[in-house]
Amino acid sequence: xxxxxxxxxxxxxxxxxxxxxxxxxxxxxxxxxxxxxxxxxxxxxxxxxxxxxxxxxxxxxxxxxxxxxxxxxxxxxxxxxxxxxxxxxxxxxxxxxxxxxxxxxxxxxxxxxxxxxxxxxxxxxxxxxxxxxxxxxxxxxxxxxxxxxxxxxxxxxxxxxxxxxxxxxxxxxxxxxxxxxxxxxxxxxxxxxxxxxxxxxxxxxxxxxxxxxxxxxxxxxxxxxxxxxxxxxxxxxxxxxxxxxxxxxxxxxxxxxxxxxxxxxxxxxxxxxxxxxxxxxxxxxxxxxxxxxxxxxxxxxxxxxxxxxxxxxxxxxxxxxxxxxxxxxxxxxxxxxxxxxxxxxxxxxxxxxxxxxxxxxxxxxxxxxxxxxxxxxxxxxxxxxxxxxxxxxxxxxxxxxxxxxxxxxxxxxxxxxxxxxxxxxxxxxxxxxxxxxxxxxxxxxxxxxxxxxxxxxxxxxxxxxxxxxxxxxxxxxxxxxxxxxxxxxxxxxxxxxxxxxxxxxxxxxxxxxxxxxxxxxxxxxxxxxxxxxxxxxxxxxxxxxxxxxxxxxxxxxxxxxxxxxxxx
Length: 568
Prior knowledge:
By secondary structure, the protein is α/β, with parallel strands linked by helices. Helix content is 35%, strand content 22%.
């Protein structure tokens, strides 16, 4: 089969290079895993030489292999053998718990661990309670991880395994949620969640190393079916890093994975003790160091009193206009504003003060690490940008560019700062579809916007495409449709003026993500000398209506010139 035996080959058809100096070609030639020629079929055949395999793509199109710049590959492999709890809106809690109960019955010892529920999509609009979890899992510790990975629930055995009780103080940067009598409800948030995640993971990993490698290999094959040839894994603790290196040595990583280090006791703990960014095996190099600046649903927002008053008035108008009490209830769930010494109102959890973050980013850069900062809310983005600006000289000498992961709730001046700093916004367009109802219920106070992709591009910000899997799905073409239509699962259209084009999205998932991972000279575009990571689609996406873009099929995926997936 073409490319399977290492022989040179030519693909003839629409070649969409994502290279602005040569955006289109009619053929691409590959030899020894590298792209050696672009141009007309005659030019490329002449450059490759006689005896070359030639594939005519008919209506198909060749693009650079897709790159998912923020994809929790190691946790996807770790949790692959448990049911995915992602569910539709209005799912009863009872139905969710019945799926968890099946896991409890099938396993016999140790922690039980499942991931994917969304409390705001459950019919009861709340997380499962500790007594409900005790009923289905009375004797073994249960860690029920929310879709966002920033909240979870424990049963009583889980609290006991953590050594936590009613009088246990909340960890810094987290909450053990309690009822009015001070008793834990079962829900744990941010730092508390990550401590329990690490405890359950380390316990379950003992003796399961071979299983993890098998599941990592299987997950990579799933990515190839979607045209994804490379990912950035934004949170790799030492125990899973060792398994990555073993899998790389055994030739069992089907895609390239950039390992972004974090600490062992909690994903919130930064780690700069690895080799620098860009080092390591080609199939599993070290990526940027990961730092969490804020939460997810409890992201760090900063607004003025005037913004809040305007937003409250808009919420009331929407309720009166027909959206009812659900709008007001959603707004109340996201309250908790507190006045800061700056006179502004602050919401959510910010894990770092400015001086400490400046020091951490500077230390990372000194040790050769580019940085990737999780920053959802405008306050976190601002703090992260300040750290980038103050360490710009050192960061500029490192592979790639400083990254802001998510950057979902930002205003126009902040977008301008991102552009001026040369930072990359690592965005998740499929969130607009998958999580759009949450944004639509309570839009942030203006001028803050939700994932303003058009404003970012117009300001000159480089976008890198990603999924945040398993938070959301990794289908790149579905993400493209979401970015173009801005339409949610329930047909809400979120700030349509911030829509971008199909080619803009695909550039984010190729050239933009390559820059975010520091491999722009070797991946992300189709150009002579680059690694031949390619995806063949059933049609050229440039000529397809946006409503149909997710109907295109991945026909073939090549990694380093080898045919890694074929629909046939």
